Fold this sequence. Notes:
Elements: E1 4-6, H1 26-39, E2 43-47, H2 54-65, E3 70-75, H3 86-103, E4 107-110, H4 141-160, E5 164-167
Parallel strand pairs: 1-2, 2-3, 3-4, 4-5
Amino acid sequence: MxxxxxxxxxxxxxxxxxxxxxxxxxxxxxxxxxxVKAVGFEGVEVGVDEAAEExxxxxxxxxxxxxxxxxxxxxAGGALAHPLAGExxxxxxxxxxxxxxxxxxxxxxxAMVSPATDPHGRGAERRGEQISQGASRTxxxxxxxxxxxxxxxxxxxxxxxxxxxxxxxHQGSIADNS
Length: 178
């Protein structure tokens, strides 16, 4: 079993910057990554760098390797079948598959969270409420069919590169626990 550190949030002193899901700035990683290794993690989950070219992705993976770690998982995400956000989510998933191939990651993780339909309504914040906008309870059969179609297609592309796709159970997603 591989243990993977899934970076979600952090402020890396002396920087006051708090950016969700990003690795610390390069100058801070030389102190940060040895700590991740010392805790016992074998690798890291990183967000897909949608702007990276192959050389940049491989250089990033080499930097991670230099600290005794691997890029194990690349994080994508988004509601694949959503009428407004779906196209971007599908492009992001495809880009994550490519980025995983370049960095040597064996997994692409996706949470199919959709935008809130009513930003001021119940469940828009997706925490501490009995309803979560975009969740399976309010999804239609066509939502499930559409997501399955796009996941199947992406899974075929990922398999050709030796990459697995995992689906993260997440609030605001049709893959949730409601």
